[in-house]
Write a structure and sequence with these properties.
Largest sheet: 7 strands, parallel
Strand content: 5-15%
Number of domains: 1
CATH topology: Rossmann fold
CATH class: Alpha Beta
Strand order of the largest sheet: 3-2-1-4-5-6-7
Distance between the termini: 39 Å
Structural class: alpha/beta
């Protein structure tokens, strides 16, 4: 009898995970191994943190290698899949988790900033997919690719212009690639993330928004379900898309947030007050960015 959860298993799979030194990437690599992956290739620019994650996984009896990589460097990106191939001889899963989330708008972003944003958020995933697909084809593997996108791809906040554009580009690239390789039995899907509680988000809020200690409590109280998304929440979505449990779905991009893009609203008390006042004009603006109506710190971080 087939186990009822057999489709969620990643037994025997080899996975490449970017952004694996912390947050969503680390949680994803750990969950892949918990679900039976035979090995993981950890990719991140933070070499020391990456080595520590690899060491902890190895100590727990798993097979993991660290490949420190600056995704803004095309030559470095080109070395990732050969490193995976040299160690494991195959690649079954690619999770493009890493992303640059720095702030910049249409009026204050320069060429260097724009180019770096697209190098990390679009060019690197493009060529990692290209190289991974080549290995999957060689091994005749039913491979899966999961790209981490952002709900900012829909529109995005004014101070996230290059970021939002890069995630919009990756969204289109996700669908285009899925269409190109579906007859190879390779699936490509994406997750449009909302507001996530990650180490990177803490740093971003303090750096760009002057967030004080305790910001997380206030932010979580502002959310419909009383929390921000956690790395482990996102890892489960990635594992679902990487496993047979989601087959044969391909070319899908899932909004993963607790507010509805384009919707008007707020807490029940706010809605009731607006109705008593004679309409919905006093309600918050339609959901935009990661967090819908602007949270207390007006910060959107989408991975």
């Amino acid at each position: 009898m087939t186990h009822p959860y057999a489709a969620s298993s990643l037994a025997g799979k080899i996975a490449v995970v970017t952004g694996a030194a912390q947050g969503i990437g680390e949680a994803t690599a750990r969950l892949f191994l918990e679900r039976g992956a035979a090995g993981v290739v950890l990719v991140d620019v933070q070499a020391e943190k990456l080595a520590a994650v690899a060491a902890s996984l190895t100590a727990a009896g798993h097979k993991a290698i660290a490949v420190p990589t600056d995704l803004a460097d095309a030559a470095a990106v080109a070395k990732v899949m050969p490193a995976a191939d040299a160690t494991f001889g195959r690649v079954d899963i690619l999770a493009n988790v890493a992303g640059l989330t720095e702030r910049g708008g249409i009026l204050d972003s320069d060429v260097a900033f724009f180019d770096k944003m697209f190098a990390i958020n679009v060019r690197a995933p493009f060529f990692l997919m290209q190289d991974a697909i080549a290995l999957m084809q060689r091994e005749k593997a039913d491979g899966t690719i999961v790209n981490i996108l952002s709900v900012n791809a829909h529109v995005g906040a004014p101070n996230l212009a290059p970021y939002s554009a890069s995630k919009g580009a990756l969204l289109t690239l996700t669908k285009n690639t899925a269409n190109a390789v579906n007859w190879m039995r390779i699936r490509v899907n994406g997750v449009l993330l909302g507001w996530v509680d990650t180490p990177g988000e803490h740093e971003t809020l303090k750096r760009f928004h002057g967030a004080k200690d305790g910001w997380l409590d206030a932010a979580e109280k502002s959310r419909p379900f009383g929390k921000l998304l956690k790395p482990e929440d996102v890892a489960r979505q990635i594992a679902y898309l990487a496993s047979d449990e989601s087959a044969p779905m391909t070319g899908a991009v899932l909004d993963y947030e607790q507010t509805v893009f384009g919707g008007y609203g707020g807490p029940p008390a706010a809605i009731s007050g607006a109705v008593r006042a004679g309409g919905f004009g006093a309600l918050a603006a339609p959901s935009t960015g990661c967090a819908g109506p602007a949270p207390p710190l007006a910060a959107e971080d989408c991975g």
